[in-house]
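Sequence of Phosphoribosylaminoimidazole-succinocarboxamide synthase (Pedobacter alluvionis).
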Amino acid sequence: MKALKETHFNFPNQSNFYKGKVRDVYTIADQFMVMVVSDRISAFDVVLPEAIPFKGQVLNQIAAKFLAATQDIVPNWVLDVPDPMVTIGRICEPFKVEMVIRGYLAGHAWREYSAGKRSVCGVSLPDGLKENDKLPQPIITPTTKASVGHDEDISKEDILAKGIVSITDYEKLEEYTHALYQRGTEIAAKSGLILVDTKYEFGMADGVIYLIDEIHTPDSSRYFYAEGYQDRQGNNEPQKQLSKEFVRKWLIENGFQGKDGQVVPDMTPEIVNSISERYIELYEKIVGETFIKADADAISSRIETNVLKALETL
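Predicted 3D structure, token representation.
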């Protein structure tokens, strides 16, 4: 199966290019952003050596669906989705924090908790919790947005004290984050899923806060299957989940957590295909539709054609 690992476009009036861990972002006339969601995959803030077929399409299409489903809560950056792997939107100045919200004790928060910490990003947690337990109420555990290297936990108090975000804007970000998580939880429940945790990124343009980037995708969120959740918790069994956590667990089991000197384990075709299938499974589960694979024979030329058509209308 073919995968899109990198792009090298030169669009009309292109004024900038930025290569992120997963996304290639082209700036047009300092006015619009063309975001190409590649098939690259990252874990522990490291881009893994093999790309995952159809991963970019899955992420872009899930994000497009949920951005459309939440625009009554907060305006978002999207202007057009001209290709299964591309979103075009307005340029916003990003806030330098990611708003992570957790309804359950899983992933990074659980690793911190199991190491003995009872405070995550300044939020206190009670004793006696088990991995994947539902929290008394959803908590926001922000991280700093690192352009290079690891994002780092930070508390609300530090964000305000360092002037990273003003108190007025931060309280609005909190309000939006809780409302978006509530909406995401309701949508997931209709599909028999639990939205365990997720992250949102926001930016500002002309004095207006916009929701930017992707939302509620397996790269930015963790999902459990609702059916059997309570039984698995009661029996101290792992939760059945749909998220990128299975990739992290595979890496950990093979001696890799992104630390100095560690080497990414061999990503065999079987491993790559299994990851691709898990991404498609999540798409079909949460969107409730059969995943239609886009033509992969000439991905770059298809994207270029679709983007050029879209730019003519903006």
